[in-house]
Amino acid sequence: MPTQPLSQKEIEDRLRELPGWSADGDRLSRTYRLADHFAATALVVHVARIQQELDHHSDLTLGYNSVALSVNTHSAGGAVTEKDFELAERVEGIAPGHGAH
After folding, report:
1. Under DSSP, is residue 22 helix (H, G, I), strand (E, B) or coil?
2. What is the 3-state secondary structure (H, E, C) of 66-93?
């Protein structure tokens, strides 16, 4: 069964449970600020492991002390789906400071 796009209301409701995440057009996005480049790089590795487990991949941008994620579901026409929220929730669970900005 294909993954179905979420409605705008469903997206807004779910985002209330994920402080720091936002709907950016047809994508969910979040930027994490970390102590330094090593910590940011380590987060990227952990996010990559989660993405591999879920078989769902975001765009990741590594900065000196930041990691930006942006995700949607290509198989749903580039819309936001439950798969995107599952990835966001898993990343929140491992991010330093759980909810650090």
Report:
1. strand
2. EEEEEECEHHHCCECCHHHHHHHHHHHH
Give me the phi and psi of 82, to 5 degrees please. -60, -35
- pTM comes to 0.92
For residue 5, give the amino acid letter. P
Give all strands (DSSP E) within the chain, no chain letters: 22-24, 27-33, 59-62, 66-71
Q: Where are the alpha helices (DSSP H) in 5-67?
A: 8-15, 37-54
Segment 23-64, tens digit of pLDDT: 989 999 999 999 999 999 999 999 999 999 999 999 999 999
pLDDT in tens, 81-101: 999 999 999 999 999 875 444
Q: Tell me which residue of 56, 60, 58 sits closest to 3, measured CA to CA.
A: 56
- Owner of token pair 């579901």: 73
Q: In the block, which residue shows the tokens 């979040």?
A: 30
* Spatial contact of 94 and 70, defined as CB atoms under 8 Å apart: no
